[in-house]
Amino acid sequence: MLSWMAWTWPTALVFIGIFSAIGLLIVLELRTPGGAARKGVLGLVTTRGDRLFISLLGTSYIFLAWLGLVGMPLWWPLALSIGWFVFTFWKV
């Protein structure tokens, strides 16, 4: 199934997770329009979509920095990324 692009299952799961998060945001926006904008720790007024973008961008930087500085295994940057995601949606 994934051989057309030489993907691995972990890569496919990352993209499925991203598209699922976007789908969840669409459902939430249809149920409660406006996105509940609030001012976060960075001093920015953000909506749910902004917070998702900031968390995904931060996650990619965490993984790239970890790979560049430490290498494998990737369980620690995964834990850091989940913490960053929770912090972004809770505080930012």
Give a description of the structure.
The protein has 92 residues and is mostly helical. 67% of the residues lie in helices and 4% in strands. It has 3 helices and 2 strands. A two-stranded antiparallel ribbon has the order 1-2. β1 (38-39) and β2 (45-46) form a beta hairpin. α2 (48-69) runs antiparallel to α3 (75-91). The radius of gyration is 15 Å and the shape is flat.
Task: Name its key features.
mainly alpha; 92 residues; 2 strands; two-stranded antiparallel ribbon; flat; 67% helix
In short:
The chain is mainly alpha-helical and 92 residues long.
How many helical stretches? 3
Overall average pLDDT: 83
Quote the distance from N terminus to C terminus.
Answer: 38 Å
Strand order of the largest sheet: 1-2
Classify the helix fraction into a percent range: 55-70%
The SSE string, one letter per element, is HEEHH
Q: Show unreliable segments.
A: none
